[in-house]
Write a structure and sequence with these properties.
Order of helices and strands: EEEEEEEEE
Number of domains: 1
Structural class: mainly beta
Shape: elongated
Helix content: under 10%
Distance between the termini: 13 Å
Radius of gyration: 19 Å
């Protein structure tokens, strides 16, 4: 069973039990969040009628909040003595997919 969810402007292919890092969510650690699936499918014979259901619900648990690796941005204009550097670290949330409920 798998589903495709959208969060933070990105789409993720998820399966139950998977741990992935997404854009920062406002929920606290240990809380459960749910996502509406853009697409879901099951490989079970008993769920053959709902095998390709676009209406499913994905439940996940917030594992932790973290920051991604630092990305360095460096700008320079040749022959002008202009150099500028800056960095960025993205705020991330690590979630564990609990289950996918087909509708």
């Amino acid at each position: 069973m798998y589903a495709i969810i959208e969060t933070g402007g990105k789409q993720y292919w998820v399966v139950p039990g998977e741990i992935l890092q997404v854009e920062k969510l406002t929920a606290k650690e240990g809380e459960e969040v749910s996502f509406k699936a853009l697409w879901s499918a099951s490989q079970d014979e008993k769920n053959a009628s709902a095998a390709k259901s676009p209406s499913a619900k994905v439940t996940a648990r917030i594992v932790r909040h973290l920051r991604g690796p630092k990305i360095i941005v460096f700008r320079k204009k040749t022959k002008k003595a202009y150099e500028k550097g800056s960095g960025h670290r993205q705020e991330l949330t690590e979630i564990e997919v609990k289950n996918i409920q087909l509708a």
